[in-house]
Amino acid sequence: MIYTFYFKLFLFVAFLLLTLWGYRAYFKNPDGTVSAKQAAVAIAAMLLVVWAARLPFLRDREYDIDTSTWLSAVIAINHYPDKLWTLLNYTDARPLTVFPLLAGSWAGMPVSYASAELIGLVLWTGTLLLLYQVCQLFAGKRLSLILTWSLGLFLGTICHIFAAYNSEHNSILMVTAGVALFFLYIFQRWTSPVIAAATGLLLGSLIYAKFQNAPMGLLTGAFLLFAMAQRKDWRNMAALLAGCLFPTVFVNVFYALRGKLDVFWNNYFWNYFYYSFTTQFSPMPMAERFSPGRVVRFVFYATSSGIYVLTLFALAAVLPVVSFRQWVSGFRTNRMPLIFTVLLMLLSMYAVLQSGNNFEHYKLFVFVPVLIFIALMLSMSTLAVRRYAVGFLLLGGLLQTAVSLKYLDRDLAYDKRTDTDRKVVGHIVRNSRPSDPVVVWGWRDGLLVTSQRPMGYRDVHTFHFSMKSPLIPNWTRDFVEDMEENKPKIFVEAMLPEYSEKGDIFLPHDRVPVVREYVQRHYQFVRELDGVRIFHRRATPALSLAR
Q: What average pLDDT score do residues 116-123 get?
């Protein structure tokens, strides 16, 4: 029923009427005061509408393979006794992406795609609240409610590829929280060293949610330090720096005590350095990654978000021009917020484009920084400009809503891999216990989620071995150590061109000598399902014929 034309029409009309009501209220009295109680009621109603629109479309299936990566990590952490080690090593170097899902499982939620999407919605709820708090510092409550509603409107009918839980969900919440704390400081809303240390802890932890957060975190920390230095607030500067350094110092000490310091630097730094600044993962040349043509094709030309993104960037480009006199005259007063928001907006685009991969979920980074910049510019604009800008923003949001609703579909295009998944998962479930680790060689992470089996090797996908990377010897050592320690009962060779993600360019296990020899010695081939080879662990290793 929810995917019928009439239900979608009902949703659109509801969003249209709510948006028109909000615009009318703003248009009639744009400078009117809004009490804290009224603002709280409006925010609560807004969130209620977003949740009411999203919940009917919640579905327990994989829309993005990355969601399976994070869910597989949760299964592994819940299985292995050494929780902290598993959290740091079985999460693709993004423990704080996995932690919200892990917390959900500890609270009794099933480790499933529906639960993950629900947790993602909770994180977006926090982001909306923080966005409002930032905007109302300089744009006032009434205008901030409109700006926040535009993002809520987008989130209410967000496409499934954006709704699927991914590393951006917690990253954006954390970045927005850091930005909020920065603005609250420069607006003199806090002075406590405890808050400074907590802010530093937050900013220092950003890279443990996603490496692409680092530039935005460094920017926020640098501007906050500068603001503190201007006030000669040395105590808070020390607390902020201590908080920033603590996560990485703690993790380095943890690894060093185990004699595994190189594992941290290889997986947390060098792996993502090569991912971002070389052509190992993406063949796109560095210069082309930031070309105007790619920006237009990737960022603006997409049914999932193109209209809303284009609306935001159009306002971000036009407002400084039409309000030139106002912001120039107020530049001395607003110099730090202006420079900061411009750089934050540029760095959010940098995070989207840097790796050279056109992954849709990267685009989630841009919405909050651009909206904060728009809020700041509107706070310095004339009344006429504000009215037109708000109307344009809401019109773009409604058009995006119409497009998003049109493409919300119950059925995915038929994928024959689903039939193979069912066969492979059936074999795994029949021939192992829930506590038996399994290794899937390839990029087919959903097999572990559907079978609810812990991964036997710390990387749920094994495409790294196909890259021309100096880290391969380290990954090979980690693979053998994990296989010896965890002794996975089943080894699945899933790296097939027509089955695994990018299976046409990555290597099967028997093309990696050390892995091939290990599997030959410790595993026995038992079955092939649609080309997927399945091996069971031997009771005793076979004699090696290698000399």
A: 97
Least confident span in 62-66, 168-172, 226-230, 415-419: 415-419
Strand order in the sheet with 490-493: 438-441, 490-493, 532-537, 523-529
- Nearest Cα to 121, choosing from 58, 68, 77? 58
SS (H, E, C) 349-389: HHHHHCCCCCCHHHHHHHHHHHHHHHHHHHHCCCHHHHHHH
State pLDDT tens for residues 464-506. Answer: 888 888 888 999 999 999 999 999 999 999 999 999 988 777 8
The tens digit of pLDDT for each residue in 291-330 reads 888 888 888 877 889 999 999 999 999 999 999 988 888 8
* Residue at 345: amino acid letter: M
Range list of H helices, 107-213:
113-156, 160-163, 167-186, 193-204
Q: Is the pLDDT assigned to residue 190 strictly greater than 70?
A: yes
Three-state DSSP state, 47: helix
For 133, 183, 201, 216, 235, the CA distances from 186, given in Å and listed in that order, are 14, 5, 19, 18, 16
Give pTM, 2 decimals.
0.94
Alpha helices in 29-112 (DSSP H): 36-54, 65-79, 83-89, 95-106
Length of the chain: 547
Task: Please tell me whether residue 532 adopts helix, strand or coil conformation.
Answer: strand
Q: Over pLDDT 90: what percentage of the chain?
A: 76
- What's the sign of the alpha-carbon dihedral 238, 244, 247, 253? negative
Positive or negative, the Cα torsion across 287, 290, 292, 296?
positive
CA distances from 47 to 19, 122, 126, 421 (A): 14, 10, 10, 37
- Cα separation, 147 vs 160, whole angstroms: 23
CA 450 to centroid of chain Cα atoms: 22
Nearest to 18 by CA among 40, 48, 56: 48
